[in-house]
Design a protein that fits this description.
Elements lengths: L12 E4 L5 H7 L6 E7 L2 E8 L4 E5 L4 E4 L5 E4 L1 H7 L12
């Protein structure tokens, strides 16, 4: 029998690569065993994300979003696709007791 399903909402952490926020990207990848570095060609800064133990590397162009899922996996998607798939969650400021 064919049934109709909807996707469960998943909270993710994401940051847009602006060419200068390397420390922010490193914090986003913290505890994932991935490292990142910047490759510059003229005025263009490309983020390179690698997992040394697997000899895999991924590239994030300017404007791309780096997304970390609760499972620890990450995904790089273009700005256009990000705005179609994700909505920013407004968080309440923490109250001091």
């Amino acid at each position: 029998m064919i049934k109709k399903y909807s996707m469960k909402p998943v909270q993710v952490y994401a940051s847009q690569w602006d060419g200068a926020n390397i420390k922010e990207m490193e914090r986003l990848l913290d505890k994932t065993n991935f490292i990142c570095s910047v490759m510059r060609a003229g005025n263009v800064a490309t983020l390179i994300i690698a997992k040394p133990s697997e000899f895999k590397a991924y590239k994030a162009d300017l404007g791309s979003y780096l997304i970390r899922y609760p499972s620890g996996k990450f995904e790089i998607i273009p700005e256009k696709d990000f705005s179609e798939r994700f909505l920013e969650m407004k968080t309440e400021p923490k109250k001091n007791k």
